[in-house]
Amino acid sequence: MKYSLKQISVFDAIASEQSVSAAARKLSMTQSAVSMSLSQLESLLGRPLFTRQGNRLVLSHWGHWLRPRARKLLQDAKQIELGLHDQHLLSGKLGLGVSQTVAEHIMPNLIASLDQHFPELRLSLTVENSDQVIQGLLSHDYDLGIIEGRCDDSRMNYLPWIEDRLVVVASPHHAYCSQAEVTPIHLQQAQWVMREHGAGTRRVFNAAIHGVIDKVNVWKEYSQTNVLKALVKRGGYLSALPWLDVEKEVTAGELVVLATPSLKLERRLGFVWRQDAPDNPLRDVVVNEAKRLVR
């Protein structure tokens, strides 16, 4: 081999940080050593791996081709190193991007179970909306994502996990609470507070109203579910939120689920990862343990 694992590691770090200086700090190397290592790798491969955009280094066409292969090579090298030192083969770090509902209601039990059964596994957890999770996977920021709703991106593998649903909620003092059924006309006339575009919750809601309601009066958009619930409790707004997020408030009588038979609000939570991602035993452990917990 003409190239070294060190050069591949430097390439991967620069791709992650989009900066030679940041990659040097990450690898505990000098900036000149990182620059030299990258230069040597590009010279050996005969291809430019990055282009400069302002202060950032972004992957070239060849860099995008190399990135998943470099990640696999580094992962395999890590497993060899752990095996030679008689360490648990299922040790290491996994980057996980999850949606808000998953983070608040599912991840605590999953993390506790993983800590018990796989103590050498370290999860790096980031909470974002579903579109941001997918973008993070494409940018190699995460190894695995858990999102709300479907994923139709051909660059992604998608594995359905949990059946879930949205519900339309109102304050107990809202005028619609006295109605046995809330019609599409009523829903169109209401003021709504909703998750932002890009959130899985919003995507499911938009699909449900398509062909049923011409236009929804979305008064405000927020990325925090707790803000939406607080606004709805004040009496003037409706919102469509995951049942998992409002179950406690509904049980306590602070929110009311409206009957909206015209809207089909079922959805799934599911796992996503890159199509070109290498086999990853840590990813498989997280997926299998998550599926075991909800059987």
How would you describe this protein?
With 295 residues, the chain is of the alpha/beta class. The chain has 3 domains: 5-84, Orthogonal Bundle (Arc Repressor Mutant, subunit A); 92-162 and 269-293, Periplasmic binding protein-like II (D-Maltodextrin-Binding Protein, domain 2, 3-Layer(aba) Sandwich); 163-266, D-Maltodextrin-Binding Protein, domain 2 (3-Layer(aba) Sandwich), CATH 3.40.190. The protein has 12 helices and 11 strands. The strands form 3 sheets. Strands 3, 4, 5, 6, 9, 10 and 11 form a 7-stranded mixed beta sheet that branches. A two-stranded antiparallel ribbon has the order 1-2. The model has no long low-confidence stretch (mean pLDDT 89). Keywords: DNA-binding, Transcription, Transcription regulation. Residues 1-60 form the HTH lysR-type domain. Pfam families: HTH_1, LysR_substrate. Belongs to the LysR transcriptional regulatory family.
Unreliable sequence segments: none
Helix content: 40-55%
Q: What is the subunit organization of this protein?
A: single chain
CATH architecture of the largest domain: 3-Layer(aba) Sandwich
Which structural class matches the secondary elements? alpha/beta
CATH class of the largest domain: Alpha Beta
**Order of helix and strand elements from N to C terminus:** HHHEEHEHHEHEEHEHEHEHEEH
As for the number of domains, it is: 3
Rounded to the nearest angstrom, the radius of gyration is 23 Å
What portion of residues belong to β-strands?
Answer: 15-25%
CATH topology of the largest domain: D-Maltodextrin-Binding Protein, domain 2
What is the tally of beta strands? 11
Give the overall form: elongated
Keywords: DNA-binding, Transcription, Transcription regulation
Family: Belongs to the LysR transcriptional regulatory family.
Pfam families: HTH_1 (PF00126), LysR_substrate (PF03466)
Protein name: LysR substrate-binding domain-containing protein
